[in-house]
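Re: folding output
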Amino acid sequence: MKRSYARLTQPLVRENGALRPATMTEAVERVAIGLDPHRGDAFGLFSCSKGTNEMNYMAQKFSRAVMASNNIDSCNRT
């Protein structure tokens, strides 16, 4: 397998307009803080019918339990 040297090997966070290396914990915390204002009706999620039942189940659980939103849709309802 050919390795891409342009691939990121660690998370980066933006601080004062520049990207800097961060730990995975810090990166996940920043994502959580950024998503928090979008909980409830401000959040929506699209799921793919080509995904497994397990993946679609996890998507709806994330949307409902974590993001407090029932706004989830997929194209498998036809």
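--- second protein (sequence, then structure) ---
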Amino acid sequence: MTQPHMIPDLIIQTKTLMREKLGVGASDMTRAVGKAKNRLPRRIYNQALLLAKAEPLSVHPKLCLTLDAPALGEAAGDVQKYLKSIDLADQRKGWILGMLGGLAFNMILFVVVLVLVLYWRGFF
């Protein structure tokens, strides 16, 4: 069970994970979620938006009592679970392999076009 006074800590932990896993360096949760919008699944993005909307209220001692602490705790848990599942090394390998695959395709296409032009000109 999440207590209302624990919500700022959950938000800070979530921002730290976003900075580590997505490279989103922002001072508040709203900006961090905005920068990470395209890299988050819709369900996780919506839960991160709940945390962003609750951030200004969570630092005020009386207003934090108005927040739905169990729902925010569950949202923070889901966002953190997703962020912890991101493998940065696998993403780097995938990016490099994708780039090399595209480069190999372009080289093969160039050689095929070169052979066709040479054949058309009568050099083969």
